[in-house]
Amino acid sequence: MDSTKRTRELVFDAVAADEAMSRLEEYDCDTIVSLLPRMQKLAAEKISDQLRRSAATEPLYLNGMSIPSEIMLHVFKLLDLESLMECRLVCRLFHSLVRDSRLWTSLPRATYIGGGRLAKRGIDLFETIEFVSRYPKLRDWTVPSGLDFGRVPVDAMDALALAVPDTQRWHSFNNQTLTREHVARLLIGWPYLRSLSVVSAALPVDLASLTHLSVRAYDMFDGRLPVIQSKSLRHLDYFGVGIHGTINNLLNKCPNLETLSSALTLDEALVSDGLRSLKVYFVRVNDAISACSALTDFEYDVIPDDEPEGNWSETVKNLRGGSQDSATEIDLQLFPSLESFFITDFKDPIYSNSLRRLDIGIFYLPYGCILSKLEWLSVKDSETDDERDTPNDKLLLKYDKCHWPRGLKTLRIQLRDKMHGSRLCTEFVKEVIADLPELRELSVNAVLDTNVYSPVLTELAVDGFQDWPNIVRTVRGSGNLRVLKLGIGQSKTGLSNAFWDDMSLSIDLAKVKIMVPLALRTKMPPAFKRMLLKGKVAYFDRSKTSSYGHYNEYFLWPQHD
What we know:
The protein is an alpha/beta fold. It has a domain at 2-103. It has 16 helices and 30 strands. The strands form six sheets. It has a 20-stranded mixed beta sheet that branches. The longest helix has 17 residues, at 29-45. The radius of gyration is 27 Å and the shape is flat.
């Protein structure tokens, strides 16, 4: 033990490690998940001499591949500092990594906030250059918010380009406006630049090798996207009131464009064989997207009362719409390939023989909907002015009129706050399980005051249980339950140290993965961290959603090989 302590004193700098951990940004989750089994195996061995010797003299390997140092940092972060010390993963390699800024390909978050070097007001270009030049491998970074490009000579952009020559993704803040000349110099100076996000009154006509362009109009009320042309551009995000020319003209000048997101009005029928994703504000024309043969994702905000007639799309699979009046609701049968639909509100029944996923901002489907293949449903119970003082027992009557398809396999429910801890929530969850015999996954932001049973349920996500025995009874009575997520809403009920101590001793929960939100990783007690190292619990991340309202869940599950 004394030897271990002396080793830690020699090779471990707690201040440097804490600073590095706080600065790390989230890495690609798939890569991290693939690395965790290997890291968990190393942690489980707890052979300090072997770890210290191997880590100090050679890199760690995964399936015969050397683990890049930058990824190692992110894996260390997920295991958290306390766990690293417990598992003897504090070694010379880790110490050198957290001290070596040359490894960073993106600037740490701490750079832009608080007392960070790039957070101060009135920072000039040369201060920025002096700082970023310390990161010779920098590829993805954001301009300091205090930098005023209006005072930056165009010639000075050459010095910026030389300081970080490998830049691939560059972002500026919305209050910074670049001229055409500024952008042109950057495109010349950064031959590897692929993604650019700027506020600009004008852009160079030729966008060089850019594949991603995000541009905000300088004048939101009178701005126009300048004429651009690019054979390399794949994704364009434009926020402004208009463009010079037509959207078809833009597609012709950017023949490989796959994604177009804008606040434009669609007042012409588009023709494209390459466009795959389209977002617009208004749709005013017949057959607006019927000639886009590759289009799979379509998003709109408003369709006027005089809804366009004609065909919609044979290829669109994902559709997202804004709030509509009954007079302007789209007929989903005009999208024969539709699989996913997100909409905040609608009043009339909807019909679709292909729809599998439905995400709505209301709680119940209008009576008469025909959705023969629907398997995934997300609903939200929003409080109206008329219901603000309605007692909970009367609100339950509303829940009885949900008319959810009995063939659902996944159901996600967001209840209003006043129902969050009500006993009626538990009764409602029991009724839902009883009414949906094929339900495999259920998520509801409620604290249950008793146990629930289901012979087919494989995943249950709730805010928590009022007491420990009800969790045990729920698991015992649900023979196929494999995943239990806690803390999905605002409440942190049941996440105390005593709670996890009881769970660590439970035999009944051995078959179930107990998961908590990744956002709570810094707040979890020591008992949870000990279980994490043994592979009995895990984190999940629901902070990221796709553009169509679907949760992308990353299961950070340490396992033993």
